[in-house]
Amino acid sequence: MEEARVTRQGSALVPLDGPGEEAIRAFPEGSLLKVKITRPRSKKHNGFFHVCIQEAYDVWPRSHEFQPVSWKHLRAWLLVKAKHAHVMTLELTDDQIKLVGPVIRAFKEFMSEDDEDQFIFTGIRGNALIAMRPKTLSFAAVDQHWFQPIADEVFATLKEEAGFDVEEHYQEWKKRNEQANNEAGTSGEDGEPGGADGE
After folding, report:
1. Is the pLDDT score of 116 beyond 60?
2. How large is the C-alpha radius of gyration of the chain?
3. Which of 188, 156, 160, 184 minimizes the C-alpha distance to 174?
4. Within 13 A of 63's CA, how many CA atoms are on the CB side?
5. For the chain, what are the domain ranges?
6. In this structure, what are the phi and psi dihedrals at residue 6, rounded to the nearest 5 degrees?
7. CB-CB contact of 185 with 175 (8 Å)
8. Tens digit of each residue's pLDDT (9 = 90 or more) over 77-105
9. Which of 33, 48, 148, 180 is the most exposed place for a label (fewest CB within 10 A)?
10. pLDDT of residue 197
């Protein structure tokens, strides 16, 4: 499937860059095209999403069964909870299932000490070993149409699991950004800076 970044000028869609122009020129003049229109990911929404998780990590309840080792670990867990994850299921025999517990514990300790951006979550369901790892949230892979429901699920989980009031933190975050914009004399997307990383 050909992809092209375009901008609207009147009733026409005009390529934004060389690759986009090449993709469009590859079609014969007058040919009928089916166009799927998607909006780029909101930098403002993306920024708040990551700031929210960082702040939730700072106040994560010690009594919770899941104890993240970093805010990125928490983000990975939240994405898996939101079903934005790769899942592998391995069926085991009765003898094999008895060995899984110690293996999982050792594996989790190993992963928590390894690359902080790589997290795998495991569990047992019946005689099956389930392994899950979060999918990417890169801007190239997830546009706003797909990002919105993922963020909604993550925010709902934060409120349900940790009593984290997302709306309250949004208002505080908005005030901080407005103050920063006024002091700097600049503004980001929708009048607010994007913040946070794109992943």
Report:
1. no
2. 22
3. 188
4. 3
5. 1-37, 42-64+139-199
6. -130, 165
7. no
8. 999 999 999 998 888 888 887 777 777 76
9. 33
10. 47
Using left for φ > 0, alpha for ψ between -120 and 50, and beta otherwise, residue 107 falls in: alpha
pLDDT of residue 162: 94
Can you read off the two tokens belonging to residue 185? Answer: 């004399």
Residues in the chain: 199
Q: Which of 175, 179, 181 is nearest to 193 (CA)?
A: 181
CA–CA gap between residue 198 and residue 45 (Å, rounded): 11
**Sign of torsion over alpha carbons 126, 122, 144, 25:** negative
**What whole-number distance in Å separates Cα of residue 98 and Cα of residue 163?**
36
Beta-ladder partners of 130: 89, 123
Whether 138 and 150 have beta carbons less than 8 Å apart is answered as no
Quickly list H helices, 15-121: 18-25, 43-58, 71-81, 94-113
Tokens standing for 196? Answer: 């946070």
Considering only residues 199 and 57, tell me which one the structure prediction assigns the higher pLDDT. 57
Q: What are phi and psi of 29, to 5 degrees?
A: -55, 130
Here the tokens at position 136 are 């990417």
What does the alpha-carbon distance between residue 21 and residue 39 come to, in Å, rounded to a whole number?
A: 19
Q: How far apart are CA 111 and CA 77, in angstroms?
A: 13
Instruction: Please tell me the least confidently modeled range out of 40-54, 110-124, 132-146.
Output: 110-124
Per-residue pLDDT tens over the stretch 160-169: 999 999 988 8
